[in-house]
Amino acid sequence: MRALEEVFDRPPQSAFRQRFRLAAADRTYLRDKGLPTVLEHARDFVKRRLAPAEPTKDGKQMPFRGHPVFTAQHATATCCRGCLAKWYAIPAGRALTGSEQAHVIEATARWLRSKGVDGAWRDAFRNCAETRSDPVEGPRAT
Length: 142
What we know:
Elements lengths: L3 H5 L6 H4 L5 H10 L1 H16 L17 H8 L5 H8 L9 H17 L6 H11 L1 E2 L3 E2 L3
Antiparallel strand pairs: 1-2
Helix pairs in contact: 4-7, 5-7
């Protein structure tokens, strides 16, 4: 299993991985639910959709939209067993171990935090409401 530092240096070189951004609805969802709750969802998604030795619809089990975790998993190449094998050297054809599942969750969390999703996320949204700006995108055009 490759270290996250090594892997996180590679996606910026991938035009496909670079194009992922949190949609406004995802940012709102994160603001309302908070990162800890969203990461609980991520744990459930990983357990049900990635951890089995032969996941159902492998390669197509993670939608591209609809939840911030889905976006993060595509951005971090933790969306299917093929990507896990290619980017993280986690072999397909066997169930993920607990530490491998935790590694996937940490990659997801790290990406979400890099997009401004941390303990200050809710405060940033409150402050931006007064200045009509977005904590990730910056000031809005009026």
